[in-house]
Write a structure and sequence with these properties.
Keywords: Membrane, Transmembrane, Transmembrane helix. By secondary structure, the protein is mostly helical. It has one domain (about 1-130). The protein is about 80% helix and about 0% strand. It has helices at about 1-15, 15-25, 25-30, 35-60, 65-80, 85, 95-130. It is elongated. The model has no long low-confidence stretch (mean pLDDT about 95).
Length: about 130
């Protein structure tokens, strides 16, 4: 849950460069941001993924480490994947970048499916105990 809250905090802080991307994109370009629209994606993804990870930590206490670790890694790497193309849009075409993004998506998808499976198992076990 701490990781998710940290993502939300960083997402809130990236609201400042996002505001510049909307109001003064040239200033960001002078600072080295070649694709200011990617700042919006980074900002929103940090907040969304952070909120989901924090919620998951609250909704599923004592989450197994084999689920929590890829959930945290995927939450961060999905959001951070918007930074390289903000600095160098051509990065999106590089095979290393594409492989890293694919690995991030696979990690995140695995973690969410695993979390759903763990939760389902726990709910079924709890319903058997009360029956």
């Amino acid at each position: 849950m701490l990781s998710g809250l940290t993502q939300i905090a960083l997402g809130a802080a990236t609201g400042f460069p996002y505001a510049l991307a909307v109001t003064d994109a040239d200033r960001l370009r002078r600072a080295g941001i070649k694709a200011p629209q990617r700042i919006r994606q980074f900002h929103l993804d940090l907040i969304i993924m952070g909120s989901l990870v924090a919620m998951a930590g609250t909704a599923v206490p004592d989450m197994p480490r084999w689920v929590a670790a890829p959930l945290v890694v995927g939450g961060w790497t999905n959001a951070l994947s918007f930074v390289p193309p903000a600095l160098a849009p051509e990065a999106e075409q590089h095979p290393v970048y594409r492989s890293a993004v694919a690995a991030s998506f696979a990690t995140t998808a695995f973690a969410w499916v695993a979390l759903a499976a763990v939760t389902r198992r726990r709910l079924r076990a709890a319903s058997r105990r009360t029956a």
